Amino acid sequence: MFPELNDLLNTAPDKVEQGKLTLLCDAQTDGSFLLHHFLSFYLRANCKVCFVALTQSFSHYSVVAQKLGVCLTTARERGQLVVLEGLKSSVDVFFRAQEEPHPLQFLRKASAGDLQPLYEFVQEALKPVDGGEAAWRCPVLLVDDLSVLLSLGVGAVAVLDLIHYCRATVCCKLKGNLVVLVHDSGDSEDVENNTLLNGLGHQSHLILRAEGLATGFCRDVHGQLMILRRTPPQPTAQRERRLTYQYKIQDKSVSFFARGMSPAVL
Predict the structure, then answer these.
(1) How confident is the model at residue 221 (pLDDT cuts 50, 70, 90)?
(2) pTM of the shown model
(3) Which end of the chain is more exposed for a tag (fewer CB within 10 A), N or C?
(4) How many angstroms separate the Cα of 100 from the Cα of each of 50, 103, 266?
(5) Beta bridge partners of 225
(6) 34-72 burial, b for 16+ CB within 10 Å, e for fewer?
């Protein structure tokens, strides 16, 4: 968990907003540090977390979380964290009987697009449990990342339908939160990716967009972060608040500063 980012977002583990969709987006840079932040943040906040990890192995996320002071293995063993390892599951799905259900069942079908098994996995992972188990705070769904589904042949509309049902269940019914990461290819001809980004952008309460520097690589400034927060009850002119910071990623933290105000420059 990065304290400076918590300060920018005005959040703390003891003060978790509910019913929110957060969109993490990166363009010409790696924005995975944002997802690592939210994963460790919600685990520290004692939330029940379902993590759909489509990009990296569990061990990768575990190593990064360890640096941030969170043990994913312990969280999974005590039932706080449920993980779908996309890299591992994508192989397993081909070695089981056709009739056996699997979250990534669409990989075995000629026309990818049926994401209902994946939704049912999320629903089962986050459903309230009565009796004896630890009482977790609000449920949270994290997805890293939705762009992978597009590269596997799933259409943007099908992915948006999945998010719609997840929002209805996690955010509305269970009063939890949803955090998704999507890559911005920067290609105006990539209709599917643009449709997904635009669709999610209109639904999101908070958008964090990490971008590479227009001037190229810099040792002391790794990129810039745009923060867009929406407050629906406000009039249209006042419902969006946009802030932009530059950042530098360090081994166990991230430093943020106003544009042009890097300590290296000053």
Answers:
(1) confident
(2) 0.90
(3) C
(4) 22, 10, 61
(5) 210, 245
(6) bbbbbbbbbbbbebbbbbbbbbbebeebbebbeebebeb
